[in-house]
Design brief:
Bound molecules: flavin mononucleotide
CATH superfamily: Electron Transport, Fmn-binding Protein, Chain A
Helix content: 10-25%
Strand content: 35-45%
Radius of gyration: 17 Å
CATH topology: Pnp Oxidase, Chain A
Distance between the termini: 34 Å
Number of strands: 11
Length: 177
Amino acid sequence: MPVLMVAAYDENGKVNVMNAAWGMICSEDRIALFIDEEHKTTQNLLKTKAFTVSIADREHMEVADFFGIASGNKISDKFERTGFHAVKSAFVSAPVIDEFPVVMECELAEVVKTDSFYCIVGRIVNTAAEERVLSENGKVDPSKLQALIFDQFRHDYYVSGEKVGKAWNAGAPLMKK
Ligand SMILES: Cc1cc2nc3c(=O)[nH]c(=O)nc-3n(C[C@H](O)[C@H](O)[C@H](O)COP(=O)(O)O)c2cc1C
């Protein structure tokens, strides 16, 4: 699973961030998150109709995990106590967290309610990345990004980065049989 940092403002412009492993790109410009209706972040983004999704990296694991343990419903200074910084996205009404290296800025596109979970679909309006995680051709380089991966089997964090093949290519020999 990825380790996604979902950030949104409350009705007073206060920043809140949560950790979400159940999320993925579901179209060219769409991301789907599966988040509990009780979470402060869920309530916030349903009101503001905007959120950002950052990719948590190795360097910021402690805070990323804290965002998944603490709730803004109970801890009023959840974001402030981390010492992290946020600026308002130029594209949507949601905070961009400075410390995380890649961010997708999203407007709320669709909400699907299941028993106690929402599937939140965001339209990705803009994606931004720190220079330090880019390769020479300007693409995000996983070996520089050091994105966290959540192991749902044992509840551990791993780091991604090892390239093992080329997509749309590794299976090509079997096409010729
Ligand atoms: C590794 C990890 C992954 C998580 N993934 C999700 C998830 O995909 N969906 C969800 O609803 N909660 C998930 N959580 C739990 C929320 O992050 C947690 O309940 C958090 O306190 C919610 O914060 P908030 O109430 O301030 O929004 C995860 C927590 C951790 C530690």
